[in-house]
Amino acid sequence: MSKTVVVAFANNKGGSGKTTTCSNVACAMAMQGKKVLMIDGDMQLNLTISYFDEDTALAFAQNGKNIYTAIKEEKDLSDFVVSTEYKHLDLVPSTSLMSAIEFDLFTKWQREFILKKCLEPVKARGYYDYILIDAPPTLGGWVMNIMCASDFLVIPVEASPWGLFGLANMFEFVGQVKTLAPTLEVLGIAVTKADERKKYFKQTLETLQNTDGARLFKNYIRVDSAVEWSQDNSKPVVAYKKTSRSAVEYTNLAKEIMKYAHR
User: Fold this and answer.
1) How far is CA 182 from CA 8, 58, 104, 152, in A?
2) Interval 249-260: pLDDT, tens
3) What residue segments make up the domains of the chain, in order of their start?
4) Coil/strand/helix, residue 230
5) Domain 5-260 in CATH: superfamily?
6) Is 251 exposed, middle or buried (0-12, 13-18, 19+ CB in 10 A)?
7) Whole-structure pTM over 0.85, yes or no?
């Protein structure tokens, strides 16, 4: 039975390309023959909408087939998994009710480990090679839950003057989490929305290359209109337009993540 590896995608700054990276890396892994479960941990439902139309996403929210219900009731996450149209690729949807998750967690015993407990039966079955979790752009109890349930952390960073803002806070938070989950490792920083024509792109790379305690992934994601078109069609770009520049880059990033994500 293979070991299931859990990877969280998190950045406390919005607009980092976090959800798009999680969505496309997951799909690229599945296209490489890996069995992958995605967990949409954000109340904005963007990961869910990356694979389902809005009506279907809202139905998941209304019928209880979502991460909020699982966490609130502390249930086995297996009961909340839905299949996507892609082979070997499943999802635990989100809901706007996730806006109340911090309050719900506050009342629970060992509240930092609720998601980890809900994930244990899924991991024990050994069906999935990877579980990828899309975290909301905050640093609170729910994100701490996500990190405590994860083996590795990927931090997407937008290649812009504002992209590095808050990164120090992110690493400080990770340090706090590691007091509870000492085996958590920062797998690396993934640069997104890169424009090689801009001077600040080079400056961003140089700054990140000198960041202590985190590798900078070799493969970065450049700006590509194909990503927006794929999102408009509720599909990951690696499936929507396989020959696009961004599809190739996400596929290469997924391979790089799989290369390092082992113990």
Assistant:
1) 15, 37, 25, 11
2) 999 999 999 999
3) 5-260
4) helix
5) P-loop containing nucleotide triphosphate hydrolases (3.40.50.300)
6) buried
7) yes
